Amino acid sequence: MLTPSAHLRVSDMYFNRLSHIAEPEIDSAPTSRVAKLKLSYKNIETLVCLADILMITLSSVLGVQLYQYLWSGETISLVTSLGVGLSQALLYTYVSSSRGLYRLPVLLSPSRYLARILTTWAIVVLFVVVFLVFLRGGAVVPRGSMVTAATLQISFLLVARWLAEKASRSLMARGALAGRKVVTVGEQSELMRLSTAVLFRYFGFNELTRVSLSTAGGPASNDVLVDLDRAIHEARERGADELILALRWNSRELLETARERLRASPLPVRLLPDYTIRSVLGRRLLSTNGPGLALEVQRAPLTQMEQAAKRTLDVVCSAVGVVLLSPLLLIIAALIKLDSKGPVIFKQRRNGFNAKQFYIYKFRSMTVQEDGDKIVQAKRNDKRVTRVGQFLRSSSMDELPQLFNVLKGDMSLVGPRPHALAHDNEYKVLIAKYAFRHHVKPGITGWAQVNGLRGETGRLEQMIERVKLDLWYVNHWSFALDVNIIIRTCFEVLRHKAY
After folding, report:
1. What span, in angstroms and rounded, lies between the C-alpha atoms of 351 and 307?
2. What is the pLDDT confidence band of residue 288, given thresholds at 50, 70 and 90?
3. Long-range contacts (CB closer than 8 Å, 24 or more residues apart) made by 210-217
4. Band of the pLDDT at 76, cuts 50, 70, 90?
5. What was the pLDDT predicted at 432?
6. Measuring CA to CA, which of 91, 146, 214, 383 is 20 to 30 A from 16?
7. Which residue has the higher pLDDT, 187 or 60?
8. What string of DSSP letters covers 168-228?
9. What are the helix (H) ranges across 294-371?
10. 297: part of which helix (H) or strand (E)?
11. For residues 355 and 436, what is the distance between their CA atoms, to the nearest angstrom?
12. Strand (E) or helix (H) holding 242
């Protein structure tokens, strides 16, 4: 019978089996020596896929033309051989990609997956040959040409995989391979069995830091909530792309607590397969289907394509606005200087996307420049408002410098209006889901503003209604909705004066 200490050693050996599958020379990848030029985890898979397309197409053309020239002294149409080769290349890469044969673990150890690679290639070649025979017998491409082309293809593919292995290992050794930046949150027992090498190699995650949950007081204790808040803070400060959960799948209450708490962050949240699942599936299945096993607990409010479209609209419109309005901006600046003492631009801290602080720009319209723990909102006939400031606020021209906030990337043209930090700290306690407003960039105008909620929100009920409209915008964003809000804002400013 094993002693308790011996049993623990055997258990540790078993539990760490998957955490040490990386080869010694790449186990700590990526290294601390950061290369000047980095290639993303996904891009290297794409590059190898493109290399296979090139190799198969080239070998098909060479094989057909070489056979025809040596056998009959004639050449077949280059367009025909090119079309057949390209079609086969696209079909092979599609099937290989769907089977996970371009994932980094496969690229690093192609010999382990050689049978899958060869089987996939053979099936595709057989399909193409049968199709050509069915199409026009041997008139399209002679059988001898097909055999020659196939021989060159498999040779080129094996060489390409060997070169991809060398290149991948070299990039990892130099720290030139970048994955998605993540903060890992989990139970101590799961984190101990999940090395950074496994996260990078099998899931494409570059771990910035990890937060261990203190579950001794229960899955919903204050300690757990504090740890989850710390994970959100670390992700925000370190610029993480995602939050990763490493929890036992049977810890239902802890999973629910983590899911609810992490909703305060706009970042995607994924749940990794726990150690039991990884042990059952084994290394081979993880190698080819790893990312699919990381369950999406929370998606980002906008996809990368949607973010790109929104950012394009922001940059184009704000740049055009700055150019066209530059004479007006200069005139307003001169009037402010002549009217009262103080700077032309008023800067105040606000919470932006993911609650990251930035300085918002406005034309100074008041005699005070509050940016502390307590801020009094401007009211009708407020004596702190200057003469020029009264006109600027009623026409909303005091907001024009925020076009530069948009160009900097701190704000968007359309989004929830950012509030002063003092008001943010007050309302996030009083209003449920208030923090969800930070799931997108704050805007110069927003859905709440074009629905009549501009200016002062003196009563809590007004702010609650504004938050509801802001959250509706976050959940229903579209490019067309942004354009609609921008157009409606122009009419809203003309109809209703602010103060």
Report:
1. 19
2. low
3. 210/183, 210/184, 210/185, 210/186, 210/246, 211/183, 211/184, 211/185, 211/186, 212/186, 212/187, 212/188, 213/185, 213/186, 213/187, 213/188, 213/254, 213/258, 215/187, 215/254
4. low
5. 74
6. 214
7. 187
8. HHHHHHTT-EE-EEEEEEE-HHHHHT--HHHHHHHH-EEEEEEEE---TT-TTSHHHHHHH
9. 304-339
10. strand 295-298
11. 10
12. strand 242-246
Give yes or no for a cis peptide into 266 (omega within 30° of 0): no
| pTM across the whole model | 0.69
pLDDT tens by residue, 313-335: 999 999 999 999 999 999 999 99
Which residues touch 486 (CB under 8 Å, ≥6 apart)? 317, 413, 414, 445
Q: How far is CA 68 from CA 71, 126, 338, in A?
A: 5, 21, 87
Here the tokens at position 399 are: 């907001």
Determine which helix (DSSP H) or strand (DSSP E) holds 485, and give its type and residue range: helix 479-495
Chain segment 81-131, per-residue pLDDT in tens: 788 888 889 999 999 988 888 888 888 888 888 888 999 999 998 888 887
The one-character DSSP state at 1 is: -
pLDDT in tens, 452-461: 777 666 677 8
Angle between helices 143-173 and 41-72 (to 10 degrees): 150
> Which tokens go with 280?
């059952």
What is the token pair recorded at 284?
Answer: 């081979």
User: Within 13 Å, how many C-alpha atoms sit on residue 106's CB side?
Assistant: 24
Place of tokens 């990368």: 304
Residues of CATH 3.40.1360.10 domain(s) within the chain?
Answer: 177-298
Q: Any residues with CB less than 8 A from the CB of 412 and at least 6 apart, and which?
A: 310, 311, 314, 406, 440, 441, 442, 443, 444
Multiple choice CATH, 177-298, 3.30.2350.10, 3.30.460.20, 3.40.50.1820, 3.40.1360.10: 3.40.1360.10
d(CA 432, CA 447): 19
For residue 338 the two structure tokens come to: 């002549």
Task: Note whether 339 and 332 are within 8 A (CB).
Answer: no
Q: Report how far residue 354's alpha carbon sits from residue 339's, in angstroms, rounded to the nearest whole number.
A: 38
